[in-house]
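User: Teach me something about this protein's shape.
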Amino acid sequence: MKQIEACVSDVGCDAVKTGMLSSTAIIEAVAAAISSHKLKPLVVDPMMIAKSGAPLLKAEAITALKTRLLPLATVGTPNLHEAGAQMKEPPG
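Assistant: First, the predicted structure itself:
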């Protein structure tokens, strides 16, 4: 959060792009900061799956990505593996 606050207050933001946000807590914090500062346009790079197929996003964070961050996005930039993923939440 302090990094976002520093950028917004120091140089401002003409556009914002997310990178690897691996957990629910991180996604929630970033989404809250984006909402509170009304940062647009927003490019969301979900960084869910590496080109090798290895998971980068914790399974329990998929819901936060889908419900908190993606609705704020102007555009998403998934890689080929991410675009074809089912984005299923873990059971339970």
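Now, about its shape. The chain is about 40% helix and 10% strand. The CA atoms of residues 27 and 65 lie 7 Å apart. If you'd like, I can walk through any region in more detail.
User: That's plenty for now, thanks!
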